[in-house]
Each structure stands twice: as structure tokens, then as C-alpha cells.
Amino acid sequence: xxxxxxxxxxxxxxxxxxxxxxxxxxxxxxxxxxxxxxxxxxxxxxxxxxxxxxxxxxxxxxxxxxxxxxxxxxxxxxxxxxxxxxxxxxxxxxxxxxxxxxxxxxxxxxxxxxxxxxxxxxxxxxxxxxxxxxxxxxxxxxxxxxxxxxxxxxxxxxxxxxxxxxxxxxxxxxxxxxxxxxxxxxxxxxxxxxxxxxxxxxxxxxxxxxxxxxxxxxxxxxxxxxxxxxxxxxxxxxxxxxxxxxxxxxxxxxxxxxxxxxxxxxxxxxxxxxxxxxxxxxxxxxxxxxxxxxxxxxxxxxxxxxxxxxxxxxxxxxxxxxxxxxxxxxxxxxxxxxxxxxxxxxxxxxxxxxxxxxxxxxxxxxxxxxxxxxxxxxxxxxxxxxxxxxxxxxxxxxxxxxxxxxxxxxxxxxxxxxxxxx
Amino acid sequence: xxxxxxxxxxxxxxxxxxxxxxxxxxxxxxxxxxxxxxxxxxxxxxxxxxxxxxxxxxxxxxxxxxxxxxxxxxxxxxxxxxxxxxxxxxxxxxxxxxxxxxxxxxxxxxxxxxxxxxxxxxxxxxxxxxxxxxxxxxxxxxxxxxxxxxxxxxxxxxxxxxxxxxxxxxxxxxxxxxxxxxxxxxxxxxxxxxxxxxxxxxxxxxxxxxxxxxxxxxxxxxxxxxxxxxxxxxxxxxxxxxxxxxxxxxxxxxxxxxxxxxxxxxxxxxxxxxxxxxxxxxxxxxxxxxxxxxxxxxxxxxxxxxxxxxxxxxxxxxxxxxxxxxxxxxxxxxxxxxxxxxxxxxxxxxxxxxxxxxxxxxxxxxxxxxxxxxxxxxxxxxxxxxxxxxxxxxxxxxxxxxxxxxxxxxxxxxxxxxxxxx
Lengths: 422, 422
Known about the structure:
Number of helices of chain A: 16
Oligomer: homodimer
Radius of gyration of chain A: 21 Å
Number of strands of chain A: 13
Strand order of the largest sheet of chain A: 4-5-13-10-11-12
Shape of chain A: globular
Distance between the termini of chain A: 71 Å
Largest interface: A-B, 80 and 80 residues
Largest sheet of chain A: 6 strands, mixed
Strand content of chain A: 5-15%
Structural class of chain A: alpha/beta
Order of helices and strands of chain A: HEEEHEHEHEHEHEHEHHEHEHHEHHEHH
CATH class of the largest domain in chain A: Alpha Beta
CATH architecture of the largest domain in chain A: 3-Layer(aba) Sandwich
């Protein structure tokens, strides 16, 4: 395993328990290792994934749980008493029926899973909560990450809530909004003179130096990524324990898409939903579309790109789960597509105007790709469809600032109002 | 009644039904009128309040409802099928146990009701959803409001979601953040050359001119205000169907505080919680503290002030429910207090640091007053206490911008990191 076991006191005594998780399995060669702070296979360097031995579980068991992701604790690599510990309690965000948007797009049944309702207003609260729970059990003392924004907010907030130290590293040229909303939580905050790739590399080096630091998206990534399954669980439960026909998911590292699909599969295997086919679609911005590009060209590998898009939360040029996204999309009969920054902004405004949901740029990417895939016939307008809004427009205000026009001020009189109102 | 009945087609036919609501009663003289678009008593000009004939209701009935305010539809003036209509689905926000903050303040059991998780990130989504539901039944065609920010966001989003027109009016000098986050929803957006009082006066005049416009906080205010009861309902349910000993609530118009108390009373009368005493405390910023001032001086009336505080969402100099706040607070053995802007900022940072909750300035006011009332012995540190965070720090970033220090950037090397990290 590529990690030192001395970082993991629980593992030393041989009693590390993370709910129903049984070990880590390599996604490439199938080699299995015990639970611990490992993230790459010691046989082939492939990424590790959490495996489980699930108990019999009923819908009622889940419905009796708290109204957050811990209702699915039995399906996550976390201690079973996690709901009683100080976490940010993310999840169970609203799934709203989007008849207004559906009508504009000529669709029959469309839903929006709106993850901007999470504690720091992005889906990152889910994955960080699971990473923190697992990391604490493994004896880590510090929660850390490299980030361009949403993850920084989520890590700093979750650590403050749990009363442990955080170390968050971001590129120094980040927008002031995202810097303030991280620094306010009072952890160690490091701005780095470089781009996200530089920060990410530094984080990987530091993970090797500081044995008791859990970098959520580096050395505890297998646990972290499992958090995104809860998006799939919630969608199914909120639809009345049913799977949709189609789902459109934004693709950054690609883990969210892959884990939603895994969530659907687990629910089916557990008999919590009826088995049926579903199609998974991935959405990227054209300024950072390595997975979309690979899909279009029929490749099995993803060629890294240098990102240049306003959708900064999706701007990962070398997505770790890119090949797995291609697998899922091809297996289910879906697709990956991308849209321009202009279409992203236009789609953010369409979503706000038609549904009252102000999503971040990533939400605009998803709606834009939804339109594109409908237009070229790859998405069925008559099939029940769910789209993910993974973050909040409040954090990416600059994207719409130039296109939303604000009228000139009027004097506070009925006459001026009526003239304005015409 | 001060309102024209010809604005209300449903009322003309005599069949207006809003769930279990039975009529409107004057809070001053007790005069009762039928349900309709009325807000002031035709006998004494006192404010009207919704009355009900509640059915027998069990905890299980409520728990079987949706995970939003409509689980309490039977206790609100809304159609009973409201959950199946296109609303923003606000509410059921997290109630988190705040052990970290409690420890810092020497308290035993403290909870935060965090309403920043609502669709547009403030408690206004609750009141607007109820106002819109009632207004639609009364035949109004447009949802409107004067606002300084949070209400504007909530009205514009709720109207977009429901597919009806909105007219939102704000002072022209509002921060760009709040302007963009309203204008993006695509309703009619009016900026007014004047302060909030000017905008408010214009709204009252327009409510008389446009018969089919529902100004949520003017001509449908009795329904709107009922939405805040859901904060009280949720707190009790989330505590396991129990009432807290003490609650601290920010005071703008004062309606939120009064309605939380009403919510506790209704739950007790319905037998949904065991009867017990509770104390209600109000929190204001010293730059706009007319209710705190009246409380300190033992007055029954509230003398209007000209607001000057960074807590803009609480900056109502002539609070409509001020006298009722005094009633509730004195009846329950609570108090009203106020804190300076510097204490507001310090308390916002304390809340973020100790709990991972980044509240807006109003949240800072509430935490600041909590500290103050503990320090002077008016609040019992050993009694179970709930505080309300009514909005989101993302919308009031300027308040913390000057006090949160961001370190200088480092080069992306382990050496520079270790030197920085020291």
C-alpha cells in the first residue's frame, strides 16, 4: 500500500472499523487490502475503492434516520454512531420538480437535485463529512486539502464544527469571496503563488511529510469519494424509492458521476429499488473538456488539458476518475458533452428564471449540456430526467455580473414607477 | 377592512379556503373578519392575525409529511395540497448542537437553528412561501415587495419557481451582491433613489393602486408572518418534540420572534409537546435598537429610530411588531438587548470558528446578544438554549472583510510551507 501504516493507530491495533466497510479494493487489478489510510494499490498503483458487506437493510430503516446523509450511514465507511457526533450534517437537499424548465425544453418529467442547500452550499459538504469521519477513526489529527473554492469552504467549516485543526491551501489569485468564506472559519489558511496544479502537487508532497494530516482528496480519497453516493441514494428515495431514466451530472474529477452510478447500483442490489436501466450523462465546460473530448473520440484514456473556463469548480485538467466516467457513460448508454462559457452563463440565467434556482457556473454547465443533448437527440425528452445543481450562484457572481442588467434608479413616486413599469 | 374586496375573486364567491384558517382577528380589539386580503382592522386599525380551527393532529401525521415547511401545512393558512404545487420548498433546516460555542461561553446545552440552508439562504423563504400560497388562493397575480436584500431574493426566486410575475423594489445604493442575486431571477426589478423607508412607502401606495399585486409584507402580511411559526415548530420537532428553556431571536420587524412564540404555544395547545415554561429573548444591533431601548426603559411603545448599523437585514427603525415583542419577552421572563457593530463582527467570527457556521450580520447580532445576556446574568447558562441564525454570511461579506486577515502567498514548495507553518 502506498501509505505508511504508522499514521493509523486504530489500524495498528487491528481494530479499525468503519461501519460495514470491509476493505479497499483496487479498481484496476482487484487486489484487496485492509481498511486504512491507503489510496493507491501496492500491486499496480491503481486507485482503491471501499468495499462492504452490507447487512439486510429496509427502506424503513433508512427513513427512520436523520434528515441528512447519515440516514445512509450503513452504506458508508463511517462509524455507525456518526449521527451523534459534531458534523456539519450535510445532505437531504431538495429534489424539486422542474416543470417550468421542462416546458421550455420540451421535456416531460424533469427534476433538479439542488445541492446548494448544503451547509457551505455545495456537494463538497457530503464528501468532506465522510472523509472527516473516516479520518478521525484512522487517527488523523488535521483535516487538509488543496482547493479552488468549494472544497476549501467545506473543509474549513467541517473542521471548525468538529473542533479539529484544518489546513487549507488555495491559489493566491482566487476571488476574494472564496478566500473570505474559508478564512473566516479560523483554520490554517495558505495562499500559494501558483495555479491549482501547483497547489495540488504541494499537497501530495505534504501528505507524505505530515503523517497525521488527512488531505481529504489525496490520502483519504477512497473514503471521501464515497460521500457522493449519497446524491444517488437521496435522488432515489426522494423519487419515492425509484430510479430515474436519465441523469445529467457535472464532471470535474468525475468521482461524483461515478459514485452516483455506484449508489444506484447498490440500492438495486440491496433490493431498495426495483432494478431498471438508467443512463448517465456527463457535463463539462468546453474550456476544460478532457472527458467529453475522449468520449467524442472513442478513447479509453483521458488526455490532460490546461483549463480555461469560468466554471472554475469543474476546471480539473487531469481528472482522476475520467476513465471511469467513460466506462459508466458507455455502459449505461449515456454520453459526455460540453458547452461554451457563453452557454454556461445563459443556462445559469435560464435555470434562475424558469425555476428560481440560482446555481453556480457548474449548474450552468449541467443545464447547458442538458439542452445540447436534447437538441442533438442523445437525451430522450420523454424519459424521466434528473439534473444536479452542485453549488451556489452566490459564489460565482462574477459569471453573471456582466449579463444581468440592472435598470437605472427611479424616484420613489407612483408617477415615476408607472412610467418605468410602462 | 382596509382593503378592497374586489381584488379577491375567491372571496367574492364566498369560498376562500386556506386550510384550517377560519378568519382574521385584530390583535388590538379582537374584532374578527373573514379570510381575505386584509391586514388592518376596520374598527381600530390594529394589525390582523390569522385564526384557526385546528383538527386533531399527531406527531406521526407531521412526521409523514415532506421534509420542508409543508409538513406543518395543517397549522398554516395555505391550501392543503400545497406540497404538490411548485414552491421553493423551504424549511426543515438543520438544528445543530453547538457544544463548541457552548464551551466557549460556559453554557451547558446550546443549539443553533441554521436558516441559511433555505433555498435563497435566509428565513425569508419561509414567510414568502406562505404569502405566495395564500396570495394565489386570493386571486393575486403578482408577487411584490419592498426589500433591502433577503426578502428581495426570496420573492424573486419563489415567483420564478411558481411561474408568476414578481415586482421587487430596493434602495438603489444596495450592495451589488444583493442586486445581482435578485435580478438574475428575471422578474421586474426596480431600484429606487431613496432609503428603505422611501421604498416601503412607495410599496404601500402601489398596493392601493394595483389590486392584483400581493406585496408580501404589506397587504398579505397576516399570512406572510405566519410562516415564521415554522421555525418554532421545527425547533420543537428537531429537539424530539420538546420545547427549549430559552430562545434568542433577532428582531427586525419583530414578527419572527412573536411567531416563534406563537408556534410554541400552538404545539402546546395541540398536545404535540408537553407544556412547560420558556423564555424568549430578542436581539438587536445598537445602531437600530428601538425595541431593546423600549425594553430597557420599561415602555409599552416603541419609539422609531433612524438605523445606522452593518446589520442591514435588522435595520427597521419602526418595527411593526415591536410592542408585541415587548409583550412576549415580558410575559415569558426574557429580555431584549443590543450589541455594537464591532461585537457583531466579533460574534460572526466566533460562530464560524467555534461551529463552522458562517452566519450573516444578523447571526452575529444574535450570538453577541447571547454573550451579553449571559454576562449580565439574564440568561441561564445551565438552561437548554436555542439561537437563530436567520441568514448567510455569504450575503454580508463586507462585514468581515476588514477583520479577517489573509496571509501573504507562499511559493509552492515544502520549504516555504514549513517556514510559513512554523
